[in-house]
């Protein structure tokens, strides 16, 4: 090889690599809830001051931009705007823009973070988003799932999230998950001082140490062992099922455990409940679900954590079945009759007697299962006032009317 070429190659290989410019985007919640007050001062005013202080001392080697949401229209999940593209810091311009924001609308925080990530070309370049939000997502997107997506598609993407005056642990979950799924920080700030501190911590967050090539990723903790028992395993539309959980001790105490109901083949839960310990028995409290008003195969799943790692599953089938009330079509005023519920097991609720066009019941019977027939007959003493009435079976817990039967008390009017 030519000596000059060899020297040029050696110089190129020994030169330090040029690091990509660090670019960040601030995402500010300007939804209507930011008019709420902390210690007599509106949260939007506190956020304005904190942001101004932050950009005044922003690191010189980092570009920064600004996105806001909920500041132009009410009830609009698309109200997201890039107010400043990522670039050199202009503290005066940033302050003027922030002072002009008027909180009005909803909280599309997930879409706003994605909007900011795309503005930074996160699939091509290193990008950091710092979100300040005082509430939970209100536009039907999942912050957890978004964090996973951005981490997967991004070259080197990080989202830091500041929960400003978000006090409930339940409300913090989505915000925390968004940050953690991208390797970022979640910081809860309850007042002006804590917000300023949180912004400083996220703006100057240290870069993670490079992982040695030989270092192995730690093994994830083993999932708990559990079994689910569903009663009944075959039921009808609108009926209630009970789910019993047996498994490792302290499952509910040491992990975020969910019991969820899915349509077979679907990934979105129809309903879910947390797993709670039963202090009396030492086991776990059964969960109860009202089945949807559709037939088909369903799955009850016990899952762990925000990533919903599957611990145990059980099947349940919803079939088409007729639900009827059986009683005489006509009876004398003040007489006593029996009313029967003809339906598969698994239903709970009440049978009430109403005047034909009335809203206030004049008689009630409670649905109870029977050792021989599916349900015990219910005894009613009919009103003394003649007229047209109707029996209605109202299922628990939502009092949905699942069967009706008219009855004429006394002679019909000529």
Task: Please describe the topology of this protein.
Elements: H1 3-14, E1 22-29, E2 37-38, E3 41-42, H2 43-56, E4 62-69, E5 80-87, H3 91-99, H4 109-119, E6 126-133, H5 143-153, E7 156-164, H6 169-180, E8 186-189, H7 192-203, E9 226-231, E10 234-236, E11 240-247, H8 251-254, E12 257-263, E13 271-274, E14 287-290, E15 296-304, E16 309-319, E17 324-326, E18 330-331, E19 336-342, E20 349-355, E21 363-366, E22 378-381, E23 387-395, E24 400-409
Parallel strand pairs: 1-4, 1-6, 6-7, 7-8, 10-16, 18-24
Antiparallel strand pairs: 2-3, 4-5, 9-11, 11-14, 12-13, 12-15, 15-16, 17-19, 19-22, 20-21, 20-23, 23-24
Helix pairs in contact: 2-3, 2-7, 5-6
Summarize the structure.
The chain has 414 residues and is α/β, with parallel strands linked by helices. It has helices at residues 3-14, 43-56, 91-99, 109-119, 143-153, 169-180, 192-203, 251-254; strands spanning 22-29, 37-38, 41-42, 62-69, 80-87, 126-133, 156-164, 186-189, 226-231, 234-236, 240-247, 257-263, 271-274, 287-290, 296-304, 309-319, 324-326, 330-331, 336-342, 349-355, 363-366, 378-381, 387-395, 400-409.
